[in-house]
Amino acid sequence: MSSNLHEIRPRPSDSEKITINLGFVDLGQVDLMVQEGFYSNRTDFIRTAIRNQLQRHADVVKQSTARKSLDLGLRNYSREDLEAARRAGEMLHINVLGLATIAQDVTPELARATIASVSVLGALHASPAVKSALADRTR
To answer: Are 115 and 134 a contacting pair, CB within 8 Å?
Structure first.
């Protein structure tokens, strides 16, 4: 019977959970907007408010992204990418605005041998061992 069981790896989330504190009056106003049908729930209201602010400041974000040479969006670093960098004698500088992922099969030793610095505005997904190995190189 166990031969019919297959391990299913959970799909990585495409978002990151954050926590915010709001005053009671602000929270009540959010709840009123939800109750009146303007938003489906508190999360919908907060996401919309954040997107509106980001859109309002889009020019500043675009200029800063270019000035800081940030890769925008999703950036995956595979074991093969890091091994190729090691063969070429290159050190990588990871600069990402969004999500940077270091593959689960990357060893801490390979990461230290090929990654000179890590700067991620958003989220970094990597094994705890790799994150620990790169802690002194992460801003």
So the answer is: yes
pLDDT tens per residue, range 54-107: 999 999 999 999 999 999 999 999 999 999 999 999 999 999 999 999 999 999
74 forms bridges with which residues in the sheet? 99
Q: Are residues 70 and 109 in the same domain?
A: yes
16 is a domain residue: no
Measured CA to CA, the distance from residue 30 to residue 68 in angstroms comes to 36
Domain count, the chain: 2
> What DSSP designation does 4 have?
G
Q: How many residues does the chain have?
A: 139
Domain around 123? 63-137
- Note the Cα 11 to chain centre separation in Å: 15
Tokens of 129: 């061992």
Whole-number Å distance between alpha carbons of 18 and 107: 29
What CA–CA distance (Å, rounded) separates 42 from 92? 40
